[in-house]
Amino acid sequence: MNNNSTYEEPAETNPPKATARPVPARPQRILFVDDEPAACTLAKRIFTAPTFELTTAYSGFECLEHFRARPHWFHLIVLDLSMPFMDGEETFRRLRALRPNVPVLLSTGFFGQAQGRVDRMIAAGLAGFIRKPHRPDELLARVHAVLENAKFSRVGCAATDVSFV
Length: 165
Fold this sequence. Notes:
Elements: E1 28-33, H1 37-46, E2 52-57, H2 60-69, E3 76-80, H3 88-98, E4 104-108, H4 115-123, E5 128-131, H5 136-154
Parallel strand pairs: 1-2, 1-3, 3-4, 4-5
Helix pairs in contact: 2-3
């Protein structure tokens, strides 16, 4: 008998491991409300990533029309304070009557003159505010922060901190 024969390992029988694909995040749906077309154009440029789905409205009435049609569709509303006919405060009040927990980020260029109104809105559940004119990086950061805070609130973590930019 010849003991010089070589032994070969059998071919691997395990199937190749499947590579895990990241599950795409659900787009965050934002309703951006401002009577200034330039502000809405800026929002369209900022929120173009696949992580966002943007709807724009140019008045409080148009905002409420979109919201009434799909009250649980939007994750966040960015709302201008100073608009003709129905201002941001009245629009906010009506939004809260339809869905009390909807996160709303107020946008205003007149904070000093509107301090009392903003304080009332904060007491009623406003998620925060951002000053105009918007810098794209600041607006994006604020929106991300409010959405993160809202996500933690939905899973049972108390979101008691209203942060401001």
